[in-house]
Amino acid sequence: MEAKKYLEGLEYVSRTLFNQSQAMKNMAEQYRESTFARDQMAISLSILHRSLKEQGKIVMCGVGKSHKVGNKLVATMNSLSIQAVLLHPSEALHGDLGIVRDGDVLVFITASGNTPELLQLLPHVPPSVPAVLITCSKTSKLSSHPQVKSLMYAELPAHLSEDSIHGIPAPTVSTTLSLALADAAILALSELIESDVHKRRKEFSMRHPGGSIGAGLSHLNDNLRLVETDPSAQGKFFSSQVSSSSLLSLTQIQKSVTNNGSVSNSGSLDSDDEPTIEKNVLQCSKQPPNSLGIDSTLTKTLTMNQINPTDMSELCFLKYLTLYDYLVLEKEDGSKSVVRCNMLKTLYKAEFENFTGSRTWESFLLLLKDYLI
């Protein structure tokens, strides 16, 4: 009996996903066929683009779930170097309206187009600030307001509305449509601002240096290269950007090794602005040191797995380049070598970024193997 209940729930999930996908499919067809939707979107993009060209910004505004959608959209725009802020209409009426300046664009997010808080706010918005409406309603109080210059219209058929699907009007399908439509508009706006995809990727890499996304684009990030060439910036940069489980920087190793090659017997090394760095931050063989001047005491602290380039994914390789200053490699004969990650970055850039022919990761691995081993 209990299992049957969960199976029924699973069927409900499947049905909900199908209805959501149908609503998305309907919106995609709408923007291929509807003159009204296409014209309104074109006007919206022109308003937003003109504001940004004149050093204005985009002010997202909504209530409830729409406010949370606006928060995500602002984050997306900022990562694409599009100036945007989030404004709550209730807070705006208590002083936050000061964030809106001449030249800005106000973007209202409301499925119904009749949200009272937005209607109360609009009379207090400077007449010089145009408003764009993201909505699921073609006709509404806000859509007919003279200060609302255009719509980003996400049509939601009655049979696919939340009330029809769930029996309650909880914002789900409408927020999905609003978010998807706004995301599409933001990406289009990004291309209008900069048509060169390589320049957009480079800019994005500098706005999004963290996580696997940042690792995948680290070879484009000038800020990382700046840190490599400025020793005074390395300690502060890596102490704030890299977790304690990453490799020690080459600068820290050099500071820890004295002129006669001896190393502090403590289990961790001092950094510029942290008292200690956690033990075992590298996985390394505890074999006697070679001519590189890495003392055996230090080697025990730096424990590092042997890296096999033929088994390394491109994402893993780029993560190494982002997180680490150098790699300590154990060769088959038991000797070790230190490889500067900035050298690997140069190699990668030379092969992929500046290579005009076709180049695959597999072919690069062969070159990498010769370089590392």
From TrEMBL:
Pfam families, per database record: SIS
GO BP term (any one): carbohydrate derivative metabolic process
Stored InterPro entries: SIS_dom (IPR001347), SIS_dom_sf (IPR046348)
Gene Ontology molecular function, alphabetical: carbohydrate derivative binding
Residue intervals of the SIS domain: 48-203
Protein name: Piso0_002500 protein
